[in-house]
Write a structure and sequence with these properties.
Layout: E1 7-12, E2 15-20, H1 31-46, E3 52-57, E4 62-64, H2 69-72, H3 77-96, E5 101-105, E6 108-110, H4 112-118, E7 122-126, E8 130-132, H5 146-154, H6 156-165, E9 169-170, H7 171-176, E10 182-184, H8 189-201, H9 205-218, H10 223-237, H11 241-251
Parallel strand pairs: 2-3, 3-5, 4-6, 5-7, 6-8, 7-10
Antiparallel strand pairs: 1-2, 8-9
Helix pairs in contact: 1-3, 4-5, 5-6, 9-10
Bound molecules: acetoacetyl-coenzyme A.
């Protein structure tokens, strides 16, 4: 029996595919699922055989339809706060994972579902996916990072429009405003996400990891400090075998063979 009740996991030649699997509740995130996500992120961090992670939802209808409203409805203020802190910690951990994480958004990405995909590095969405932050229809604000990651991705005005109205948008609109980075026909979503993963896996792994850290750290710094941080990261690359190999391969007009050292 799998050690996860609400997740499926498969390692496809270095691509670790995590599937949120609560189809009866459209993959809504209850506490047990968030705790399992926490656990699997720790496992993925340690598992050197996994190079890139893809997160998706089971079934064709939903990626994640938000936090579990049934479980949440009777919480008091402290319980609500603790629930938010728990999930935010897990999403932050996912965002900080030292390997690329791709969201393959196969359907509804609402509330906590949109917040989950926003905590991933790159978002590939099915043309049938739908996005929104419906929290204000429930009398709450988003609580898993939505008020913060959404404006950072789509700008303040568009974020407030989505937050204040709770309007759902389709995949084409999500792509237009930069909420997702790539679209794919529904039946080709996983192929598209895996193709992207394979391209990333063919590049210098340390350089990719350092790009992730530079973007994530730098975006929260003033520009001068961020550029300085980039200097350090860039300098560090020259201490790697991958840099030597990458540049040697260029000069020798062949494809680089990176070792991640
Ligand atoms: N929590 C718990 N159960 C949920 C759920 C959720 N977020 N979303 C869907 N479900 C359940 C439904 O209750 C239903 O269960 P039953 O069959 O037992 O009645 C089942 O999933 C199927 O859902 P629907 O019958 O509603 O399906 P639909 O096709 O008619 O509608 C939907 C689909 C538009 C996504 C609709 O389910 C919906 O609006 N879901 C709630 C979306 C939402 O408000 N998400 C935000 C949650 S709050 C949050 O996430 C806060 C945060 O910042 C973390």
């Amino acid at each position: 029996m799998s050690e996860y009740q609400n997740l499926l996991f498969e390692n496809d030649n270095g691509i670790g595919v995590v599937t949120i699997n609560r189809p009866k509740a459209l993959n809504a995130l209850n506490e047990a699922t968030v705790r399992e996500l926490d656990k699997i992120i720790d496992v993925l961090a340690q598992d050197d055989s996994v190079k890139v992670v893809i997160i998706t939802g089971s079934g064709e209808k939903s990626f994640v339809a938000g936090a579990d409203i049934v479980e949440m409805k009777d919480k008091d203020a402290m319980e609500g706060r603790e629930w938010g802190i728990l999930a935010q910690g897990v999403f932050n951990k996912l965002e900080g994972l030292a390997k690329p994480v791709i969201a393959a958004v196969n359907g509804y990405a609402l509330g906590g579902g949109n917040e989950l995909q926003m905590a991933c590095d790159i978002r590939v969405a099915s043309e049938k996916a739908k996005f929104g932050q419906p929290e204000v229809t429930l009398g709450i604000t988003p609580g898993f990072g939505g008020t913060q990651r959404l404006p950072r991705l789509v700008g303040k005005g568009m974020a407030k429009k989505l937050l204040f109205t709770a309007d759902m948008i389709d995949a084409a609109e999500a792509y237009r405003i930069g909420l997702v980075d790539q679209l794919a026909p529904a039946d080709q979503l996983m192929d598209a996400a895996k193709k992207l993963a394979k391209t990333i896996m063919s590049r210098g792994p340390i350089a990719v990891k350092l790009c992730k850290f530079a973007v994530n750290k730098g975006i929260n710094m003033d520009l001068e400090s961020a550029i300085q941080y980039e200097d350090e990261v860039w300098g560090l690359c020259f201490a790697t075998a991958d840099q030597k190999e990458g540049m040697k391969a260029f000069v020798e007009k062949r494809k680089a063979s990176f070792t991640g050292k």
